[in-house]
């Protein structure tokens, strides 16, 4: 099953090395999305952008 991996471009909480490790093992069809200009709490301060990414991923990957 594909995974949606969303990060803030300015996230200083999760180290880049940890993000890279996770990216290396994402299953086929996964989406690695970046919310530009956002930090670790992007879901709270950029909810519309986050929702758009999430809804797009869900539309492309309907439940089976």
Textual characterization of the structure:
With 64 residues, the protein is of the alpha+beta class. The protein has helices spanning 16-24, 42-45, 47-60, and strands at residues 4-8, 31-35. The chain has a two-stranded parallel ribbon with strand order 1-2. Strand 1 (4-8), helix 1 and strand 2 (31-35) form a beta-alpha-beta unit. The model has no long low-confidence stretch (mean pLDDT 93).
State the main characteristics:
two-stranded parallel sheet; alpha+beta; 2 strands; 3 helices
| Discrete helix count | 3
Helix content: 40-55%
Strand order in the sheet with the most strands: 1-2
The fraction of residues assigned to DSSP E strands is 15-25%
Shape: flat
Layout of helices and strands:
Blueprint lengths: L3 E5 L7 H9 L6 E5 L6 H4 L1 H14 L4
Parallel strand pairs: 1-2
Describe the structure in brief:
The protein is α+β, with helices and mostly antiparallel strands. The protein has three helices and two strands, in the order βαβαα.
């Amino acid at each position: 099953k594909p995974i949606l991996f969303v990060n803030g471009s300015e996230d200083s909480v999760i180290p880049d090395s940890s993000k890279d490790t996770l990216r290396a093992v994402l299953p086929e069809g996964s989406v690695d999305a970046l919310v530009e200009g956002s930090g670790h709490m992007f879901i709270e301060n950029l909810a519309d952008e986050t929702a758009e990414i999430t809804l797009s991923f869900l539309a492309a990957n309907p439940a089976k």
